[in-house]
Amino acid sequence: MSQDVVILGGARTPIGKFGGSLRPLSAVELGAHAIREALGRTGTPADRVDLCVVGHARQAGNGPNPGRLMAVNGGLPVTTPAYTVQQACLSGLLAVFQVRYAILEGDASVAVAAGAEHMTNIPYLSFDARWGARLGHASLVDAMFKDGFIDPLTGKHMGELCDALARRYGIGRPEQDAFALESQQRAAKAKKDGHVDRVLAPIPIPRGKGEPLLFAEDEHARADATPEGLAKLPPAFGEDGTITAGNACGITDGAAALVVASADGAGRLAARPLARILGTAVAAVAPEDYAIAPVASTRKLLGQLGMEVRQFDFVEINEAFAAQTLACLRDLDLDPGRVNVWGGAIALGHPIGMSGARILLNLVRQLEALGGRYGLAAICGNGGHGASIAIERLG
């Protein structure tokens, strides 16, 4: 079955908190490290890679085509084409979709798909500086908001839109906080059980004249989170809101990469694929409904495959907000016990371009470590898009 597209494996950096340990590095350095580690862990010779696609959502200041910079700095030959994709939070998963399309078209046999983000160093922008402010004060615009937190189609913050969704679905603060606590507890257990170490690629951080510091653990997660602590946090988007810093994803830094190949390409590498991609789907909804866009993309995918959601042993839904994930669980009639079993972005953080690649890598390893045949991953994004992918464990 030469048209099967398979996943050989991958790696991710530990996720750094906003302004934390990864501050001295850049998105390019994080992505390059993830690519280098993914190649090494899968035993893939760099000169056998035909294509590299990288999802990167906040590109300002990272150079032209940062995916190319990550590929070359990650050890791929300069003769290997590489490009960057940007579809907000979907970017890392879209990179996987793009290399799959290339493989199915016969344009590539072995490829790298990655996602990277360094939110700590997202710059401020000055729209007055180029031609001069002429008179009076000049202003700076935070690209974190301009290119991310604010949805230009509605003019509202992503959190505001999700607060409105929570009211519409009747998802209250206690339910959201309970979900957030569960995310933290599951992440802590996955770390304790050694599952996280299977995907982490510790990264050295320069320290002036001293030896580099090896950053080896996710630092946003709060294993000490309590119901009482979560309940004390104020609403982030108005006094009557239910979204807080505790039941929303964190602003973080990180990168992940996967090696994807045709079945024939994997055979020529003598590699043992971990999973095959059954199908992918992207769907669009009204911008204000972005949080439930994964419902539309998942239903589209299930229709293409002739499958039902109950057939999936494990599901990864990116946790932008607890309310968003809970709404998706409700609409898709998903068993919470099978969703984000190793915790999610509320605990780990959501480096925008990385997350799609991270949840897929998690899913592959969950099927391998915990057993099961089918896995589903889905993610929502600014503007009203959702993306879903279905995989089957091999071996």
Précis, in short:
With 395 residues, this protein is α+β, with helices and mostly antiparallel strands.
CATH fold topology of the domain at 5-122 and 250-393: Peroxisomal Thiolase, Chain A, domain 1
H/I helix tally = 12
- Helix amount: 25-40%
In the CATH hierarchy, what is the class of the domain at 5-122 and 250-393? Alpha Beta
Number of strands: 16
Mean pLDDT: 97
Net shape: globular
- Portion in beta strands: 15-25%
Distance between the termini: 16 Å
Biggest sheet layout: 10 strands, mixed
Low-confidence runs (pLDDT<50, min 5 residues)?
none
Secondary-structure topology with pairs:
Layout: E1 5-12, E2 16-17, H1 27-42, E3 51-55, H2 66-73, E4 82-85, H3 91-104, E5 110-118, E6 124-125, E7 141-142, H4 143-149, E8 150-151, E9 156-157, H5 158-169, H6 173-192, E10 203-207, E11 210-215, H7 227-232, E12 252-262, H8 263-268, E13 275-284, H9 293-305, E14 314-317, H10 322-332, H11 345-348, H12 355-370, E15 374-381, E16 385-393
Parallel strand pairs: 3-4, 3-5, 14-15
Antiparallel strand pairs: 1-12, 1-13, 2-12, 5-12, 6-7, 8-9, 10-11, 13-16, 15-16
